[in-house]
Write a structure and sequence with these properties.
CATH superfamily of the largest domain: ATPase, nucleotide binding domain
CATH class of the largest domain: Alpha Beta
Largest sheet: 5 strands, mixed
Strand order of the largest sheet: 3-2-1-9-10
Bound molecules: adenosine-5'-triphosphate, magnesium ion
CATH architecture of the largest domain: 2-Layer Sandwich
Strand content: 25-35%
Length: 335
């Protein structure tokens, strides 16, 4: 993997890709963001001879609605590649629209990966990228990209801490002099909160809700909490499992806070562990400069406040947290 700042191969890259568990963003040198859609593919006859049907927004609209012979597949699980065919087709789809603009039919690409992705996971990603028609795919650690995208001056001899709260991974990194000195990634992120909401309704209400409903509910709860309306009632659409009848039920938002607290507690533990690992000088740097939160799940209401309350260190969600890695990639290929 190439360290940031010494990425000679990536300087020649035409495009760069943030292939996330929930969203895929493609940036192109000279154009900026050219693709930003959900990381989802739909295939026909997936278990026999898979035939690509759709990806991105269109495939997302099939989630929970696809019936045989159609199958909706996510290329990544917990931040790393879990389905080769889906990864290849999504990468091909995400980079295809702009291919005609290049003189070469195989654009050179840089792709972000979790800092502690295994060798096998990296190799699988490179294979999928090559199969998708990308040339010389180079991998760069996502926390470095997120830090660059968030405008953290990581090249200085000063400790900086960043937490990338994605849908499938939560990654904390301590950086100085353009390199990662400590990183820890937990395979689990904002999606864990959605799963917790789904099981809350299944067990507590005998009510089945879909993944898309759970995500919308999560974002709605986040907004209510931010507005100080944590005691509101919320309407949820789903299926009454006893009668098999679709229904809309109304629940008090308060009963969902246990799941919320569990997710926040897990992220706080990751931060505490990282702080305990930081060398003393760097700890003081972090105390003075604060902790930066990136990734979509960083917008989970109360998360930054809780990290700040527990650690005593100023913690702030960066501007456009879902775009941090992509912005870092754009800077990388622009150099
Ligand atoms: N307002 C919000 N409150 C809480 N969570 C949110 C909000 N907006 C988006 N999210 C969550 O952010 C996550 C998507 O973030 P992001 O695009 O950074 O993840 P990703 O890069 O695809 O995943 P990963 O990096 O783990 O592979 C989803 O779980 C989504 O539900
Ligand atoms: Mg991400």
């Amino acid at each position: 993997m190439i360290p940031f700042g010494r990425a000679s191969r990536s300087k020649r890259a035409d495009i760069a890709i943030d292939l996330g568990t929930a969203n895929t963003i493609v940036v192109e040198r000279g154009s900026g963001v050219v693709f930003d859609e959900p990381s989802v593919c739909c295939f026909k006859a997936y278990d026999a001879v898979p035939e690509f049907v759709a990806a991105g927004f269109e495939a997302q609209s099939y989630v929970g609605r696809a019936v045989r012979p159609f199958k909706v597949v996510r290329p990544l699980r917990n931040g790393v590649l879990s389905d080769m065919a889906a990864a290849r087709e999504l990468l091909r789809f995400a980079t295809r629209a702009h291919r005609s603009a290049w003189r070469l039919s195989r654009p050179r690409a840089v792709i972000g990966v979790p800092a502690d992705a295994t060798e096998a996971e990296r190799r699988a990603l490179i294979t999928a990228a090559v199969d998708a028609g990308l040339a010389e795919p180079a991998l760069v650690a996502e926390p470095l990209l997120a830090a660059i995208g968030a405008d953290l001056p990581i090249d200085e001899p000063r400790g900086r801490m960043l937490i990338d709260c994605g849908a499938g991974t939560t990654e904390v990194a301590l950086m100085s002099l353009g390199a990662i000195c400590y990183s820890h990634s937990v395979r689990g992120g904002g999606e864990a909160l959605e799963r917790a909401l789904i099981s809350h309704f299944a067990l507590g209400h005998r009510f089945q809700i879909g993944v898309s409903t759970a995500e919308r509910l999560k974002v709605q709860l986040s907004e209510l909490l931010q507005l100080g309306r944590g005691a509101s009632l919320v309407e949820v659409r789903g299926l009454d499992t006893a009668s098999g009848i679709p229904k809309t039920i109304t629940v008090a938002a308060q009963e969902l806070w246990t799941a919320w607290e569990r997710y926040i507690g897990e992220v706080v533990t990751i931060v505490q562990t990282a702080l305990a690992e930081a060398p003393p000088e760097m700890s003081h740097d972090i105390l003075e400069d604060g902790i930066s939160l990136t990734g979509g799940a960083a917008m989970t209401a109360l998360l930054a406040d809780r990290i700040e309350a527990v650690s005593g260190i100023r913690s702030k969600v960066v501007d456009q947290p879902m775009r941090s890695v992509a912005t870092g990639l754009l800077q990388l290929i622009r150099e």
